[in-house]
Amino acid sequence: MSWHISSKALDQDQLLVDESLFAQGNGYLGIRGNFEEGYAADMTTIRGAYLNAFHDVVPIEYGEKLFGFPDTQQKLVNNIDVQSIRIIIDGDDFSLFQGEILDFERFLYMKDGYSERRIHWKSPAGKEVSIHFYRMISFTDKELFVQWIDIEPISQVQEIEIVSTVDGDVSNFVEASDPRVASGHAKRLHVTDVQDKGPYMQVSDETEVSKLKVSATTWVSASREALKESRSSFEGKVEERRTFSGEGSLRYEKRSVYTDTYRHESSPSEAGFELAKRLSAVSLDELIRGQRAYLNRFWQTSDIRIAGDDKLQEGIRFNLYQLLQSVGKEPTSNISAKGLSGEGYEGHYFWDTEIYMYPPFLMTDPEIAKNLLLHRFSLLDAARERAKEMGHRQGALFPWRTISGGECSAFFPAGSAQYHISADIAYSFIQYYLTTGDEVFLADYGAELLVETARLWIDTGHMKDGRFRIDDVTGPDEYTCIVNNNYYTNSMAKHNLEWAVKAMALVEERHPTVYKNLAARLAVTDDELKAFREASESMYYPYSDSHRIHAQDDTFLNKQVWDIEGTPKEEFPLLLHYHPLTLYRYQVCKQADTVLSHFLLEDEADEETIRRSYDYYEQVTTHDSSLSFCVFSIMAAKLGYEKKAYEYFSETARLDLDNTHKNTKDGLHMANMGGTWLALVSGFGGMRVKETGLHFAPRLPEAWDSLSFQIQYQGRVIALDIGRDKTVYTLTEGDVINMYHHGKLFTLTEQQTLLHA
Question: Where is the Glycoside hydrolase family 65 N-terminal domain positioned along the sequence (predicted)?
Answer without folding.
Answer: 8-238
